# Entry
Amino acid sequence: MSDPNVLLRLDGVVKHFPIRQGIVVKKQIGSVRAVDGVSLEVRRGETLGLVGETGCGKSTLARCITRLHSLTAGTVTFEGQDISTLSRRQMRPIRRDIQMIFQDPYGSLNPRRRVGSIIGDPFAIHGLADGPARKLRVQELMELVGLNPEHYNRFPADFSGGQRQRIGVARALASRPKLIVCDEPVSALDVSIQAQVINLLERLQDELGLTYVFIAHDLSVVEHVSDRVAVMYLGKIVEQAEADQLYAGPRHPYSAALLSAASVADPDLADRRQRIILSGDVPSPVNPPSGCRFHPRCPKAQPRCAGEDPDLVSRLDDPSTHVTACHFPVVPGDDLAAGRVA
Ligand code: SF4
# Structure
C-alpha cells in the first residue's frame, strides 16, 4: 500500500527523444537521453530542490511529472494513482492538482492578453468560475501574490519581471493545486527580486499547504526553500539528501563542485572557500559516457568509474536519507570536501 504522506513518486522515469534523419522516409538514428531512470519521492507539504547544470534533464523531468511529456519508460504516481499513461482527457482533473510555474516570466505570458484573463484561465479550463465570480477570484489571487487587483485589465508589458512572475504564480494557484513544479522560477530575475519571489513562494506554502518541486541550476537558490535536495547530472540523480545534510557535507564530487560555486552571503566564508573548477562541458546526452557519466570531468575518477555505473545508495556512515551514486565519495578532509563548511 502506498504511503499517504508521499504525494508524488517517480519510479525509473525515462524520457528519450528520437533523432530522425531522412527527407522522405525518416529513420531514427539515435536518441537524446534527457532523463535516464529517475526515481524519487516528494512528501506532502515539503519542498524538494532539484539542481543541476543546464542540459542535465531537470526541465524535461519537470515536464514528465506534469505529463506535458509522455514517458519513454517508468511510472509517475500522484496521490497513489499511476498517471503515467493517462490520456489528455483523463489527465484533465489531475491537472487541477499539479501546476507549473515557468522560468521565463516574459515568454510564458501572452503579451496580447490582459492579466485578469491570463490568471483566470484555470477557472475557465476547469469550469470553476465565470463572469463576476471569476473576476472576484482572480482579484483575490492578485492580492494574495502581492499584485494590485485594480491592475486586472493591464497587459503583461505593464509589469516588471518580478511582477510578471507573480502573475505566473497567481495563475498556478487558481485551481488550488496540491503540487507546484517550479521550473527555475527566479533564474531570469535580478537577485533582489529573486528573494522576493522565493519569500512569496514560502509564504504561500505555509498558508496553503502546498508541496513544491523547486528546480534551479544553483545550489544557493534552493538552499533556504528546500527540505530535501536532489542533484541531477546528465539525466540521472547523483545525490539526494536532507538539505542540511547535503549542504554540510556533499558526498558526490559533482555536488561538491556545485556547492563550491554557489554564492554565500558571508564574505569571510566566500574568501576562504576553495572553488572546484570542473574541466570540460556536460557531455552530450545523445552518447553519454560509460560507467559513471561524470567520470570524464571528475577530479576523483579512477579506472573503475569508466566501467561501472554506481548505484544511488547510502555511502560511508551516511543515514539512509542521504544517498549518492559514486564509487569513491567525498569524505571529510578530502580536497573536494571544501563546500559550505570550508
Ligand atoms: Fe567521480 Fe568515480 Fe564517483 Fe563518478 S564514481 S563521481 S567518476 S569518483
Q: What stands out?
A: The mean pLDDT is 88. The radius of gyration is 21 Å. The longest strand covers residues 27-43.
